[in-house]
């Protein structure tokens, strides 16, 4: 069948809407008619080839839509079901078997490889292969053949254009806190960068009962929103001395948990230097392969601190996304405040607005 998709042709180039051919559904795939898709910063990272998915490609990895048909081996959904699409995983490696599909041993190939295991791609243009199956979905396409492992079924009364971004960005920030760091009630947390991922982390910290929730960004507009989402303190790192403020807020003890969404080495160093004894620093932001950060390990040895990286909020999407929807219904996780909707054809404007800091979470509606 023919579909309309936003194609990335070359490094950093604007998306171009094109009619492409979608091939036959494989036994373990689900054909989904997209209703909406979030735009994640990681789409821009791949468009700009900081992560080298082969181009031309159809990106997009926060899809939401309606199942049109299912492959012969699919058991988890039926035509007509409403679904949110998340990261792909193999389902059979040791990490997947132990409930850690976010760290699937085949993570890179299944999400950034943008082809099936046999090298074929669902999308093509006049016999030219177009990288697709990005995160098992390539949601910048009106219809996609989606890997069953990427599928999360949701209730039909939920607005799909609202829940689309749960598939990656929101899940990543919220899951980093609720699934991985698990801060105890009364603890302190600092979130560096309050875009979509950081904002979700702030809301999750409020759900966890953290009593000092510190948002750090370079944009006052984002920090105003952070306060509305549950931050107890905000720091503009362009105008304030971050170390001085963090020490003030924690009465000189340092912060129990820091989450870095910027992946800027000097920001990360400041974050780590302000950890409390036994504190944990986690990075979720993406940087170019080869990026290094220098950390002090002499004096800080006695402090028994932890450094870790976190993928997809260490979530099992099929468990965590319904939980986030439930928290939202109860008014405890107001992620809808981050969203601005755009028509799918305005995809380039949506990316520009995110880059300028005007929109926290763009959602494209088909
Ligand atoms: N680990 C994962 O599984 C995963 C999943 C999704 C996204 N990501 C990555 O997470 C990162 C954040 O994604 P996002 O969608 O929230 O991006 P975003 O661009 O919306 O947010 C980044 C924020 O950092 C702020 N910032 C920039 N420089 C800063 C500085 N020096 N100090 C403080 N704040 C600063 C920006 O103003 C912005 O608000 C991206 O790198 C993305 O690729 C990782
Ligand atoms: Zn696996
Ligand atoms: Zn993402």
Q: What's the shape?
A: globular
Largest sheet: 7 strands, mixed
Mean pLDDT metric: 97
Low-confidence runs of at least 5 consecutive residues:
none
Radius of gyration: 20 Å
CATH fold-level assignment of the largest domain: Quinone Oxidoreductase, Chain A, domain 1
Taken together, the total number of domains comes to: 2
Number of DSSP strands?
Answer: 17
Strand content: 25-35%
Q: What is the CATH superfamily classification of the largest domain?
A: Medium-chain alcohol dehydrogenases, catalytic domain
What CATH first level of the largest domain would be assigned? Alpha Beta
Oligomeric state as shown: single chain
The tally of helices reads 11
Between the first and last Cα atoms, what is the distance in angstroms? 17 Å
Q: What would CATH call the architecture of the largest domain? A: Alpha-Beta Complex
Secondary-structure element pattern, one letter each: EEEHEEHHEEEEHHEHEHEHEHEEHEHE
Task: Record keyword descriptors for this entry.
single chain, 366 residues, Quinone Oxidoreductase, Chain A, domain 1, 2 domains, seven-stranded mixed beta sheet, globular, binds nicotinamide-adenine-dinucleotide, binds zinc ion
Helices and strands, with pairings:
Elements: E1 2-7, E2 16-22, E3 29-38, H1 41-47, E4 63-70, E5 82-85, H2 94-97, H3 107-111, E6 123-125, E7 128-130, E8 143-147, E9 151-154, H4 160-163, H5 169-181, E10 188-192, H6 196-208, E11 212-217, H7 220-229, E12 233-236, H8 242-249, E13 255-260, H9 265-273, E14 275-283, E15 306-309, H10 317-329, E16 339-343, H11 347-355, E17 361-365
Parallel strand pairs: 10-11, 10-13, 11-12, 13-14, 14-15, 16-17
Antiparallel strand pairs: 1-2, 2-6, 3-4, 3-8, 3-17, 4-5, 5-9, 6-7
Helix pairs in contact: 5-6
């Amino acid at each position: 069948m023919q579909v309309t998709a936003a194609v990335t042709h070359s490094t950093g180039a604007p998306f171009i809407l094109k009619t492409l051919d979608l091939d036959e559904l494989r036994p373990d795939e689900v054909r989904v008619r997209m209703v909406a898709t979030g735009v994640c910063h990681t789409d821009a990272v791949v468009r700009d080839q900081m992560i080298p998915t082969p181009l031309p490609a159809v990106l997009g990895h926060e899809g939401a839509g309606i199942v049109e048909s299912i492959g012969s081996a699919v058991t988890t959904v039926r035509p007509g079901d409403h679904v949110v699409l998340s990261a792909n995983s193999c389902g059979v490696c040791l990490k997947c078997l132990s409930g850690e599909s976010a760290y699937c041993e085949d993570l890179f190939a299944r999400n950034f490889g943008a082809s099936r295991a046999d090298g074929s791609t669902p999308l093509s243009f006049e016999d030219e292969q177009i990288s697709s199956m990005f995160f098992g979905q390539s949601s910048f396409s009106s219809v996609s053949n989606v890997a069953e492992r990427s599928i999360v079924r949701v209730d039909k009364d939920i607005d799909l254009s609202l829940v689309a971004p749960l598939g990656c960005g929101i899940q990543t920030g919220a899951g980093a806190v609720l699934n991985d760091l698990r801060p105890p009630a009364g603890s302190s947390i600092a979130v560096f960068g309050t875009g979509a991922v950081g904002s979700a982390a702030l809301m999750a910290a409020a759900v966890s009962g953290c009593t000092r929730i510190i948002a750090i960004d370079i944009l006052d507009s984002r920090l105003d929103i952070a306060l509305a989402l549950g931050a107890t303190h905000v720091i503009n790192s362009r105008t304030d001395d971050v170390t001085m403020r963090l020490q003030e807020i924690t009465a000189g003890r340092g912060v129990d948990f820091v989450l870095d969404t910027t992946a800027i080495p000097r920001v990360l160093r400041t974050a780590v230097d302000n950890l409390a004894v036994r504190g944990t620093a986690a990075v979720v932001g993406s940087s170019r392969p080869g990026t290094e950060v220098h950390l002090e390990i002499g004096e800080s040895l006695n402090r028994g601190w932890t450094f870790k990286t976190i993928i997809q909020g260490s979530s099992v999407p099929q468990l965590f996304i319904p939980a986030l929807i439930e928290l939202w219904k109860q008014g405890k996780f107001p992620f809808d405040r981050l969203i601005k909707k755009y028509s799918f054809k305005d995809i380039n404007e949506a990316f520009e607005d995110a880059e300028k800091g005007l929109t926290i979470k763009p959602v494209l509606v088909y």
